[in-house]
């Protein structure tokens, strides 16, 4: 089967963020499985605040972000948990999207310093992505105890995350292939107006 394109959206813009290395790990596991990926770092993307203005929609950062997700087959979204939710920068990014994720699977991942590992962030993110007609899969990778994931040199200290990522990725790929076939071969239901 042809490789899929599965970008990873990193939703933290803090200077000393702990989510960058997990995002890189996600991209490495996607590549190791034979798929193509791209790390969409929302700190580097510098998307303007969503205001529904034509000039904002034409901003090169917005155009590039939307184009990357439009050509994706599936995507991973990684957000640290801030105040029991996902980050504002991810919500802003989502607000710029329209049909780019329609009927495509997404895996939502959370990260937190506590034992619950950003579960509230990933679960909240799923409910928002559903509004775009994306298909959040049940499985997640929630990076718990974020301070203990990597050493000072960036080496992974908790190998159990590799197996978890690979499982979630396999599930995401299954959905991507199934929904991709459906988008190509089945008529999409139309709502009566």
Q: What can you tell me about this protein's structure?
A:
Helix 1 (20-32) packs across helix 7. The longest helix is centred in the C-terminal third of the chain and has 26 residues, at 160-185. The termini are far apart. Strands 1, 2, 3, 4, 5 and 6 form a 6-stranded parallel beta sheet that branches. The protein has one domain (8-185): Flavodoxin domain (Rossmann fold), CATH 3.40.50. It is built from 7 helices and 6 strands; from the N terminus they run E-H-E-H-H-H-E-H-E-H-E-E-H. 37% of the residues are buried. The protein is an alpha/beta fold. Helix 6 (119-130) links the parallel strand 4 and strand 5 (135-136).
Secondary structure: helix percent? 40-55%
Number of domains: 1
Give me the CATH architecture, please: 3-Layer(aba) Sandwich
The description of the largest β-sheet is: 6 strands, parallel
Order of helices and strands: EHEHHHEHEHEEH
On the 0 to 100 scale, the average pLDDT is 95
Distance between the termini: 39 Å
Uncertain segments: none
Number of helices: 7
Beta strand %: 5-15%
> Any idea what the CATH superfamily is called?
Flavodoxin domain
Shape: globular
CATH first level: which class? Alpha Beta
Please give the number of β-strands: 6
Helix/strand class: alpha/beta
Quick summary of this structure?
It is built from seven helices and six strands, in the order βαβαααβαβαββα. With 193 residues, it is an alpha/beta fold. It has one domain (8-185): Rossmann fold.
